[in-house]
Design a protein that fits this description.
This protein is of the alpha+beta class. The chain has one domain. It has four helices and four strands. The chain has helices at 7-12, 21-27, 73-81, 96-107; strands at 13-14, 17-18, 45-47, 54-56. A two-stranded antiparallel sheet has the order 1-2. The protein has a two-stranded antiparallel sheet with strand order 3-4.
């Protein structure tokens, strides 16, 4: 996510310990930072916001090939500690049928008057 080099990140970590209240509370520990100080620990698991299943948090520095990560409670907690504000509700995505109907409408021939 590229936030591990920001001044706010630097202000909120002390060695391997995260000083922000939200992420520490969400993880149940403040031992959340990798030895380099610029990354969260690998394999931090949290509950996904969209369906409640457990997965590795997006803030973790690893990506497994073929695995799609969704936003988790821990990701939101880290971002909140860093000063970001989360929207009250997600913006709904249009359904495939609505997109198809919109495309058809644009492609229909128009009558000239």
């Amino acid at each position: 996510m590229g936030i591990g080099t920001s001044q706010t990140w630097e202000n909120l970590n002390n060695g391997s310990y995260w000083l922000g209240d939200e992420a520490s509370l969400a993880a149940g520990t403040s031992n959340l930072i990798a030895a380099d100080g610029h990354h969260a620990l690998s394999n931090l698991a949290s509950v996904r916001l969209n369906d409640g299943f457990l997965q590795e948090a997006i803030i973790s520095p690893t990506i497994t090939l073929g695995i799609r990560k969704e936003l988790t409670e821990l990701d939101v907690a880290f971002l909140t500690d860093l000063g970001y504000e989360m929207a009250a509700a997600p913006v709904p995505e249009p359904s495939s049928m609505a997109l198809f109907a919109g495309a058809l409408f644009l492609l229909l021939p128009r009558r000239k008057r």
